[in-house]
Amino acid sequence: MDEVRLVKVRQRFEAPVVADLAVAVREETRRLLASCSLASGSSVGITVGSRGISNIVDVYRVLAETLNDEGYKPFLFASMGSHGRGTAEGQQEVLRSLGVTQEKVGAPLLCSEEAVQVGETEAPLAGLPVYAAREAVEADAILAVNRVKPHTSFHGLYESGLMKMLTVGMGRASGATMVHRLGWGSMVSAIESIGGVVLERLPVMGGLAIVENAVEQVARIEGIGAAELPEGEKPLLENARAYMPALPVRVLDLCVVREMGKNYSGTGMDTNIIGRLRLQGLPEPEEPFIQCLAVLDLSEASHGNATGVGLADFTTQRLAEKIDRGATYLNCLTSGGPVRAAVPMTLSDDEALFEAVWKALKPERLDRVRVAIVDNTLHLTELWVSTNLLKELKEDVEVIGKPFSLAFNNEGEMRLEP
Questions:
Q1: Do 91 and 219 reside in the same domain of the chain?
Q2: DSSP 123-155
Q3: Hey, what's the torsion of the CAs at 310, 315, 321, 322, to 10 degrees?
Q4: Apex CA 316: angle with CA 278 and CA 304, to 5°?
Q5: What's the domain range around 218?
């Protein structure tokens, strides 16, 4: 029968998990404190800002409790580069959406646009101004907190993690703009050079690194002292890379992402999953190879920031109507990827979108089109694939539903059930 037939499948990923998160945070925080000579009563500024980190409110709460118990004065300060439109109000809005509030973490939460220059880099990237949040400069100690994971726009010894938090995130809009001006090809060198100045000039006591498994559980918590931070982060990045989820097939005619958003990836859709960068001067990944990529909706948690929509070839009117162009454009202009803000071919609904895809692919038979449908690029344990892919799936992928034909309801929305 010449129609697309789909079936739901479940992937099994390696998923180690920290047994007791609170205990791990306390132990690693106390280990960090023991490694540095910090006077009792000192203020400790804790970076906050990355999205989508599992159990992050609990991490901050236990961290603040531990520092208080040990006789220090913890506070959190916004460290998110240009995110939240680079304003104090925007930062507060983002943090509230993450559940990070002063009441929930039990420590003051400071948001502002203020950043001060604390020095300049030396060779090989000499003369770059180094910026840091004013709250960090005025603190007695700084503790970086971030998830370590592969980045969606560059790869190297440092990607998303503690070093990037100290250099780009903590630099706020001024620092982020300066770094992104160099281009993604220079990002790793910039993080290393700027990080060296930050660690030398500011009272960084270290960092608390979080590594997640493929199903968003905390797989590892590790405190790293300031002196060991540049080298200590590298093996954690390799851990995170090994734990990353992936699509069960590497070549697709069509991949449909039901919802994109900043709560799933900094680029709305994780480039490591979809195999697309679309950054001038950088080569596209060899795999996965997806001929047509469609995205159907934008998450509420993104607050209209549709950074990454330009990675897709097709989208819907309902997504397009949710886009906050100001927030999206600022994000993409700052990061140096304006094409990622470009709205792709926009169709009235899901059904019209699929019809457009068929016209683009021009298949001899629809039942031969290689299709995968995912809820988003973060949650890949369960997804839908066309039945013609079943023979290619590995042993760690099991079929959990009955095959059904691709169909749509009266509003033109896709139905994913038999």
A1: yes
A2: TTSTT-EEEEEHHHHHSSEEEEEEE-B--SS--
A3: -60
A4: 70
A5: 35-243
Q: What is the pLDDT along the chain (418 residues), one digit of tens a residue?
A: 689 999 999 999 988 999 999 999 999 999 999 999 899 999 999 999 877 788 999 999 999 999 999 999 999 999 988 676 778 888 888 888 888 999 999 999 999 999 999 999 998 889 999 999 999 999 999 999 999 999 998 889 999 999 999 999 999 988 888 888 888 889 999 999 999 999 999 999 999 999 999 988 999 999 999 999 999 999 999 999 999 999 999 999 999 999 999 889 989 999 999 999 998 888 899 999 999 999 999 999 898 999 999 999 999 999 999 999 998 998 888 777 899 999 999 999 999 999 999 999 999 999 999 999 999 999 999 999 999 999 999 889 999 989 999 999 999 999 998 8
267 and 152 in a common domain: no
| Residue 384 near residue 392, CB atoms below 8 Å | no
Q: Is 285 helix (H, G, I), strand (E, B) or coil?
A: coil
DSSP state of 170: T
- Reference 302, options 228, 376, 247; nearest CA is 376
Are residues 344 and 198 located together in one domain of the fold?
no
Answer yes or no: do 198 and 122 share one domain: yes
- For 5-34, give the DSSP string: EEEEEEE-------S-HHHHHHHHHHHHHH
- Determine how many CB atoms are found less than 10 A away from the CB of residue 279: 21
- Domain match, 184 and 255 both: no
> What is the model's pTM?
0.84
Asked if 326 and 399 sit in the same domain, the reply is yes
CB 88 within 8 A of CB 111: yes
Which CATH number characterizes residue 154's domain? 3.40.50.11440
C-alpha to C-alpha distances, 11 to 18, 52, 80, nearest whole angstrom? 21, 21, 33
CA atoms within 13 A on the CB side of 175: 34
Sign of the CA dihedral 63, 65, 71, 77?
positive
Same domain, 65 and 152: yes
Distance of CA 135 to the CA centre of its chain: 24
Of 195, 210, 243, the one marking the end of a domain is 243
Dihedral sign computed on CA atoms, order 129, 130, 136, 141: negative
Residue after which a domain boundary falls, among 219, 243, 267: 243
| Judgement on whether residues 258 and 294 belong to the same structural domain of the protein | yes
